[in-house]
Amino acid sequence: MPAPHTSSINSQDPDDPLTLAMRPSASETESVRRVRLQREADEKSVSDRIDEELRQERERLKRRKLDVKLLLLGQAESGKSTLQKQFQLLYSPQTLEKERASWRTVVYFNVVRSLKHILDTLQSWNDLAEEYQSSGGSSDQGYSSSGSNAIAGPSTSRHRYPPVASSSAHRATESISKNGYDSSTTSSSSVGKSDNPSYQIANLRRRLSPLVAMDTQLADLLSGGVTVAGSGRGGVFVRSGWQARAIENSSSLTKMGRWGKRATGKDPEAQSPINAADEMMHNVQRMLELSNDDIETLWAHPIVKKMIADRKLKLDEWSEFFLNGISAVSRSDYVPTVDDILRARIQTMGVVEHTFNVDLSGQNILWRLYDVGGARGQRHTWIPYFDDVHAIIFVAPISAFDQYLEEDARTNRIDDSLQLFTTICSNPLLKNVHLVLFLNKTDILQSKLASGLRIGKYITSFGNRANNYDTAVQYFRAHFLQVHRKNNQNKRVLYSHLTSVVDTKTTQSIIGNVRDAIFRGYLKSAALV
Prior knowledge:
Oligomer: single chain
Shape: globular
Structural class: alpha/beta
Number of helices: 21
Number of strands: 8
């Protein structure tokens, strides 16, 4: 009886369909054979290259699993980006050095935006005073009930001046340098008005208008033309990589050594404008230099100081920092210092990744720090993508008890921080993530309390507690700890710190403690201890 027939799976079987399909034609010529063999060699080379790329990708993924991943969260203007800069300064100072030139644009923008806000606020109160007087109010009524000097009086015109067109910046600079600061050009009719506060402010507004008009162009230079609706008066949003674009667009900055020391030698390319962005930066610098005295006069003006004291003019801490140091910022050889970079304000859009090599007990571990945009509209998108992070550093500005969200004027910023922290603590995707809490801006909290601001006026639950720093810190910390306790089924530890992240020495000491705590948790999660 013959054996049953079975199909062979041997690819060398001459009857195998694949072998038959790939077999060269019996009539194949030598030239065709060479072409075929070359094609097969090329195809094998491509296949081998793909295999190698896949192998390398597997290795990268294996190594990436050993990376420490940190998520930096908090509301807008909480100090997240400043904390990121402190990490960068501690673990990768050379990258901050490379980016230093880009921060000059940010500082210029911060100064111009601050001046614009001051002048706009003064104009608003001027208009209110005029409306009051035109309705029959007393001619000596000032901008506040305290009876201080009025911004506007019946004998003084409004002095409203249209902004200078941005395209005329260069001509405006030339005009300022030739005429704007020559006291001899003052007309005789204005001599009697020179002591009038209203006239002084109007004159400063006129003289500073070319500089203030650069606000939009500086914003476009930083953001690449991207605008975000409802971002508020301080809102210019930048994407990842903005520093490289700013450096490219500011190549005329004189080359410097580390942290502001001028390098020796001359480089013509580095000192002459080569494109429109360079020319604009040159014009802004020149206008700042020529406007230095007027900026100092405006900043020191009694009306401005009075309005700040009466909280009719509210400025961010970075505004006061740069206006106090305007003589350094306006110099032609200005290069941002470390403190300037830490305090420079710009809002990030989306998620920005920063990497640092951190030495831990002789091991070189790559840390990935993810800075997530703090605007309300950006928060809901990040959670599904970061369930594998090892720790979350949450930054809450406890100095913001008297502030409200720009996106929602009814929501106190402390309450918003607590809501965001509750979302993080209660999210099941983040239940195994270690938590670090930075109660930030303690220096500003102390300053506000020393000036007489009462927490109970803005946060009713504070009640009649003593309005001092220790009581306030204890109160705010207790509320965040309570949120953590209510959402801590996994019994994870919350590390909390009182911080002022612009204080480099103290912050870097805290970062060292946080690093050790996170690394211990990292080792446990990796089952290495």
